[in-house]
Design a protein that fits this description.
Blueprint: H1 12-25, H2 38-45, H3 49-62, E1 65-66, E2 74-75, H4 78-81, H5 87-93, H6 98-123, H7 125-130, H8 142-159, H9 163-171, H10 173-183, H11 187-206, H12 209-231
Helix pairs in contact: 1-3, 2-3, 6-8, 6-12, 8-9, 8-10, 11-12
GO biological process, one term: fatty acid metabolic process
InterPro entries: FA-response_TF_FadR (IPR014178), FadR_C (IPR028374), TF_FadR/GntR_C (IPR008920), Tscrpt_reg_HTH_GntR (IPR000524), WH-like_DNA-bd_sf (IPR036388), WH_DNA-bd_sf (IPR036390)
GO molecular function: DNA binding; DNA-binding transcription factor activity; fatty-acyl-CoA binding
């Protein structure tokens, strides 16, 4: 795969980051190995050591590297140390990971939701039902549905006293909305989900937490069929 356009900026820092990330991804700097000395690496890339240090610090925060004071900088296994913020970079590096990433994001969202939404209804059914107050004014667009879905299920985490789940959704916000927009681009998906929201709202109003969980599980199964078709025909510009 040609990775020459991973980063579009031509700043020294961007060029250094691009070189190091590609080198790690393509196993020129394999996981568990040490990067060359700063002076050597800076000269090879054509940047100052100050610029290189800033880039190394940023890549370390993202999980690509481990900076060891007094020792060489170690290359991490990014799958073990990285966070959701590098997903877009991985997609740009190798689009073959797209189906796996999308299916993982969808699975994470749906499995979490089945658990904590029921808890939210148990704790405060009235507050749970009020989360649907803007449902009638929901615009019939993919982005509007994706944003509503994200905000709805993020707000449920706080009613359920599951703030860590809220933090997880915060970290996935951009990817969540992008993936959800892909799902909601078809009218049939939006209509089916609107019916799901309406049913879920009614069950929240009734305080029927068991039926809420069953409703969400049924929606997961129905959506899964549609997702299978989507993953077989992903748009070329997804993730860009």
């Amino acid at each position: 795969m040609d990775n020459t356009s991973l980063l579009t900026s031509q700043s020294p820092a961007a060029l250094a980051e691009e070189y190091i990330v590609k080198s790690i991804w393509n196993h020129h700097f394999p996981a568990g190995s040490d990067l060359p000395a700063e002076r050597e690496l800076a000269e090879h890339i054509g940047v100052t050591r100050t610029t290189l240090r800033e880039v190394l610090q940023r890549l370390a925060r993202d999980g690509w590297l481990q900076i060891q004071h007094g020792k060489a900088t170690r290359v991490n296994n990014i799958w073990e140390t990285g966070g959701p913020n590098i997903i877009k970079t991985i997609i740009k590096l190798d689009r073959s990971y797209l189906p796996v990433i999308i299916s993982n994001v969808v699975s994470l969202r749906t499995r979490m939701v089945e658990y904590y939404v029921r808890e939210a209804v148990k704790i405060n059914a009235t507050a749970s039902a009020e989360l649907f107050s803007n449902l009638e004014s929901l615009e019939n667009t993919a982005l509007a549905y994706a944003t509503f879905d994200y905000n709805l299920f993020r707000q449920f985490t706080f009613i359920a006293n599951k703030p860590v789940y809220g933090l997880i959704l915060n970290s996935f916000k951009e990817m969540y909305i992008q993936v959800a927009s892909l799902f909601f681009r078809e009218e049939i998906a939006r209509q089916g989900t609107l019916n799901f929201y309406q049913t879920l709202k009614m069950l929240c109003e009734q305080g029927n937490d068991e039926a809420v969980q069953q409703c969400i599980a049924k929606n997961r199964q129905q959506s899964g069929i549609y997702w299978t078709k989507i993953l077989q025909n992903l748009p070329e510009d997804f993730g860009e």
